[in-house]
């Protein structure tokens, strides 16, 4: 690790037409608004608000929060930069900030925070439930029974990869059974051994698991967690979820309950793991957090003291997914060979990232890996979700 933090690279903005971040603001956000518009029979007031947001996505500016916003929320957003960015184009402010704030505005538009019919109604829940109900989920859960013949370590590694590739909404249990080649080759960095070593240190061991998506990502996350508890690799766990709907499919406490019920209702190994986790929650060995900062438009380097203290107390904090990675290393145009340990030196304890690559940010690669990726013919290796990484700073 370098003695000093690396010179920060430029922050990623969405202002360059044709770039991936620009496409997210200009195309994906409007598509999300249209999808939400069709999800429920919203009345004229909500439809007007959704249409205004749709228009704003094209050429609007960041606006102050509505007058009826909760005072604490208002104070938080002021601290998170809203006062500085209000009046500026979505395309000129940091991309991470613009995306995150877009979801806050979407919840305003559907009336999520306002007293009334739509208060607390997750506009993304039907899509999340559909994923859990998909017959493919049954198949993937049934495939878990095939892990019975493996040693506990092999099972642990298979479940770790299931959780990793679940970030692509793709449970990877069959990885363990001969079909591993393609996806393991697609790992651009694999510090898996360092993660297992951390879970071998003298106990008691606490895992902080900062989850990402609900549905078919959260299910394998829970299976991994349950396995680690069952094998005594961790004694306690804190599961960090989002306090409200975010980035379409991010997991909230309600999504956790849906996933848990899905697991406990399943037969075989999946059901056993589900019931184990249910008991661990009842006994307080697993606790759930939905910290406001989990939906903040800022990097983890800016985390508040209480969150910092929680992560500091963990044996290891595992962050799932692309967005958490961006927030962990900083949403910047890093040189891909910038050491992961350097950009995460500020983090208050050992930290691991499990991520499929779905945006431009990348650190911690070797020069050889970068050269191979650049030459490999897959121009979208940074953003297409075809590659993944396990990076650890001990
Ligand atoms: O669910 P994940 O892995 O955090 O990915 C979400 C990603 O999708 C995007 O919203 C758009 O690609 C990225 O900004 C973000 O990093």
Task: Produce a short descriptive summary.
With 394 residues, this protein is α/β, with parallel strands linked by helices. It is built from 17 helices and seven strands. Helix content is 46%, strand content 9%.
Describe the structure.
There is one protein chain. Helix 11 links the parallel strand 2 and strand 3. The chain is of the alpha/beta class. The chain has a seven-stranded mixed β-sheet with strand order 1-7-6-5-2-3-4, with helices on both faces. It has two domains: 104 residues, no CATH class; 267 residues, Uncharacterised protein PF01937, DUF89, domain 3 (Rossmann fold). About 3% of the residues have low confidence. The longest helix has 20 residues. It is built from 17 helices and seven strands. The termini are close together. Its cofactor is Mn(2+). It comes from Streptomyces parvulus. Keywords: Hydrolase, Manganese, Metal-binding. InterPro entries: ARMT-1-like_metal-bd_sf, ARMT1, ARMT1-like_metal-bd. This is Damage-control phosphatase ARMT1 family protein.
What descriptive keywords fit this protein?
about 400 residues, globular, binds 6-O-phosphono-beta-D-fructofuranose, Rossmann fold, 17 helices, alpha/beta
Mean pLDDT: 93
* Outline type: globular
- Determine the number of helices (DSSP H or I, runs of at least 4 residues): 17
Low-confidence stretches: 170-181
The beta-strand count equals: 7
Give the SSE layout:
Blueprint: H1 20-39, H2 44-59, H3 71-79, H4 82-85, H5 95-109, H6 125-133, H7 135-143, H8 152-166, H9 181-185, E1 187-190, H10 192-198, E2 206-210, H11 218-230, E3 236-240, H12 253-265, H13 268-282, E4 286-289, H14 305-312, E5 316-320, H15 321-329, H16 340-343, E6 351-356, H17 367-375, E7 388-393
Parallel strand pairs: 1-7, 2-3, 2-5, 3-4, 5-6
Antiparallel strand pairs: 6-7
Bound molecules: 6-O-phosphono-beta-D-fructofuranose.
The site of 6-O-phosphono-beta-D-fructofuranose has 12 residues, from α15.
Keywords: Hydrolase, Manganese, Metal-binding
Cofactor: Mn(2+)
Organism: Streptomyces parvulus
